[in-house]
Structures are given as C-alpha cells and as structure tokens.
Specification:
By secondary structure, this protein is of the alpha/beta class. The chain has helices at residues 13-16, 36-42, 114-120, 131-140, 154-161, 171-178, 197-207, 237-258, 267-273, 295-309, 329-342, 370-377, 406-413, 424-432; strands at residues 3-4, 7-8, 24-28, 31-32, 47-53, 59-65, 74-75, 145-148, 183-189, 212-219, 263-265, 318-324, 346-352, 385-389, 416-420.
Length: 436
C-alpha cells in the first residue's frame, strides 16, 4: 500500500532530504506503511531508509540519520490512511440498529477497527481483526487495547453478537495478556442473557488476567425505535442492586490481589438502583470514563473543589440556564444550589430535557437532541446564556445527533449557547462567567 504525504514540516529530517508534500510514501526501512501506527513505529529509528515516489512518478530512496525518537516530519490527511474497518457483528443490543431513519449517514456506520482503539480509545470486538494486525499489536506493543467483551462464554458470545467467530476470538484476550498488552474491557449487560451467573463467569475470567487493567459493566441502552429487533428489556431496581453487588465483590478482590480496583459498574446502574454513587477516590485513575464510569463523582468532586477555591466576586447580576439529561439533572441541580449559596447576584436554573427523540428509556445527556431541547425550552426565559454538556454535540462541537447545528438552535431559542465539557472546574467557570 502507498500513501500520499500531506505535509512535510520545514527543517525536519525529511524536508532536509528533499521529501515534499504530494509525494507518495512507499516504505520505511523496507516496511510497508499501511496506517499511522506503522508510520509512528518505524519512524522512531535513528537510521531510516525512506522509499517514495515524486510528483513526476520517479521512485526515490533516501537514507536519513536522525536522533532516536525524533520526528521524521511527515504528516498525512488521515490517521488510518485507508477506510475504517466496519463491524461484522449483528449484536442483539446494538445501539446503531435502534437509531431512527433520516439521521446523517455517518451515524449509521459501525466501526470495529483495532487502530481506532489505540488512536482514539474506541472499543473493538476482536471479530474483525486479522492475524497481521494481531502480530503487529504484539510486535509494536501497542497498548492499551479496548475490547468489547460482553461475555467470556464462547457460545453465549456467538448468540449475543450473531457472529460464528465471536467465541473463537476470545482466546486473543489471553494472547494479548501473555504478551503484556494492557487491556480495558467493556461488558454491555442484558437482563436474562449475560447477567447474574454469566456475569460472574466473565468477571472471574477477566480479573484472573494480569494485564486487564479495568472492566466496565454498563446496562443495555434501549430506544423506542426497535421495530423488528430482538425483544429486550432494561434492568429493574432490584436487579441493578444485585448487579452492583456482584461487580463490587470483584472490585474488592482485585483491590486485594493487585492493589487497585479493576471492576466497575457504570453510573447508570447506581441511578437505576437509586444508590448513592461512590466518592471520586473509589475510581482510581478513571480508566473507564468513556463508558460512564465515575463521570458523576469526578464532576461533583471537581465542582466542589472549584467552588471552595474561588474567591472572586461576580460584579454584575448574571442570569443563565443549564439544560441537561434526566440522569444528570439531580447532580447538576445539587452543584448549582451550592453555587447560588456563594454568589447571591447569580441566577441559574437547571432544565431537565426528556428524551422524546429516542424514547424515555434513554436518559443520558449525550443522547439529548436539539429537537427535544427546542421543544421543551422554546419561549422560556433562558437568561443571558444557555449551557449544555458538550457530549450532546459531535466532536467538532457544532452539531447535535439530529443534525441541527448549534447556531441553528441558538437562533431558534434566541440565546447564546455554550457547550461545557465534563469538567467541574470548567462548569463552575461557565456558570459564574469568570475564568479561574
């Protein structure tokens, strides 16, 4: 495979040897460059033989000497350099299958790409990985790898993921563990399927492995758009309580065995069980934030610290509104109450947005759409500014899941809208309108 060089940093080793943007990179030290993982690994050498094709079609070879780990100086338009690998599974709980029609096309793409796992933290099922990629991960010691396990029962995994190879590839977890590759695992839990005794089996198998750094257990998400799909249900309060107890028992075992807790229930399980969430210290290094593990506790801890540390005064009266999802509403309200006690010329209301777009069973802020925000806040006095969690927007921070832009919603509601990251310090700063 060959790849077009998008940019060459001026003054870099590559630039000094006449390599320019628009040239085609063929290999480094005889190794074909398939994607950014290959490039990052092979460009670290002190002596590099670079084979490339110029704009005029001439094949050239340059031998470059540089400091070990110094950058060669090449940049590319894409991290992957080819198409993303799509998912080969048909999981009974797949959230993408539950999306309504008419949304932007990119939302319906199911990726299952080992490269995205390392580069961006995406979770992979291992059913789409080739022997070449496996050997490369081990050779390059690419770590950590994030794996959607769901169950360590091979037959059950085949049933849940509806892929005949889903059970066989579980052996790769042991293979990576033996090679010293750090692993973060995810289990999407479905009542009457991979919970209870099956969950105990999975956690027992995973926590026996030295290099499984963390396991997140999250409840299945069910939208109202499940026509023609498998009949699934959510967890009851008592079931959520029992699940947390199982998870916590394994967490205590790993704490004693390894010196750190490695198994966690997502925040959603605590909300379903109506249990108080653990303190921030419970979550260690917060390795599973992307799975909603410890998000609440971290936000609360940071916000409380920020309130205590701030000593500035808000000079003029400020009135704002915060819109959030059903789950986060109690926590945001609690934080705002503490803010209002400290600053008496601040007015801040918190509005809970019900998810009519995906259905009432979807209660997380990250799946709230502009359509629901608009319908539920239209005509309301929102003050000078409306704050929303940035997770409601795509990575560019400009568009909601229903393809409505931030600017369009701002114009419709006639208010400035400011996205806020899941950071307690930033939240207090945005609420008060003051920088720390």
């Amino acid at each position: 495979m060959s790849v077009i060089i998008d940019y060459v940093e001026k003054g870099s080793p590559a630039y000094k040897h006449g390599i320019r943007a628009g040239y085609t990179l063929l290999s480094l030290n005889g190794n074909e460059i398939i994607d950014m993982l290959d490039y990052r690994f092979y460009q670290n050498a002190e002596k590099i033989t670079v084979e490339f094709i110029t704009n005029k079609g001439k094949v050239c070879v340059k031998r470059i000497r540089k400091g070990e780990n110094d950058e060669l100086g090449l940049e590319f338009s894409s991290y992957l350099m080819d198409k993303k690998h799509s998912c080969l599974n048909k999981c009974v709980f797949c959230f993408i299958d539950q999306l309504p029609k008419g949304m932007r096309e990119s939302l319906y793409f199911k990726d299952d790409d080992s490269r995205l796992s390392f580069l961006f933290g995406n979770y992979i099922t291992l059913t789409n990985i080739t022997e070449h990629e496996i050997e490369r991960i081990i050779k390059m010691h690419i770590s950590p790898i994030n794996i959607s396990v769901h169950t360590t029962n091979p037959e059950l995994r085949v049933k849940m993921m509806r892929n005949k190879n889903a059970g066989k590839v579980l052996e790769l977890i042991d293979r990576f563990d033996s090679a010293g590759i750090k692993l973060n695992c995810q289990i999407v839990l479905v009542p009457d399927m991979n919970d209870d005794k099956e969950l105990i089996r999975s956690l027992k198998d995973l926590t026996a492995l030295q290099n499984v750094e963390s396991v997140a257990v999250v409840p299945v998400g069910l939208t109202r758009h499940r026509e023609g799909l498998a009949e699934l249900r959510g967890f009851t309060k008592s079931e959520a309580e029992e699940t947390i107890d199982i998870i916590d028992s394994f967490g205590k075992e790993t704490l004693e065995k390894y010196g750190n807790r490695r198994v966690y229930a997502s925040d959603e399980f605590y909300l379903i069980a109506k249990r108080e969430l653990p303190a921030a210290s419970y979550y260690g290094e917060f390795l599973q934030l992307e799975n909603g593990v410890g998000l609440w506790s971290l936000l609360k801890s940071e916000a409380e610290d920020a309130i205590k540390l701030t000593d500035y005064k808000i000079e003029s009266e400020r009135k704002i509104t915060i819109a959030t999802g059903v789950d986060a509403y109690p926590l945001i309200t609690e934080i705002v109450d503490k803010v209002l006690k400290k600053w008496d010329n601040l007015r801040c209301s918190v509005r809970k947005i019900e998810n009519n777009f995906f259905g009432p069973k979807i209660t997380v802020a990250g799946l709230v759409t502009a359509t629901d925000i608009e319908k539920q806040l239209k005509g309301a006095d929102l003050g000078d500014e409306l704050l929303i969690p940035s997770v409601m927007l795509r990575s560019e921070r400009d568009m909601f899941l229903d393809s409505v832009t931030l600017e369009e919603l701002s114009q419709s509601l006639n208010v400035k809208i400011t996205p806020v990251d899941n950071d307690g310090y930033e939240l207090i700063s945005k609420i008060t309108g003051e920088e720390f």
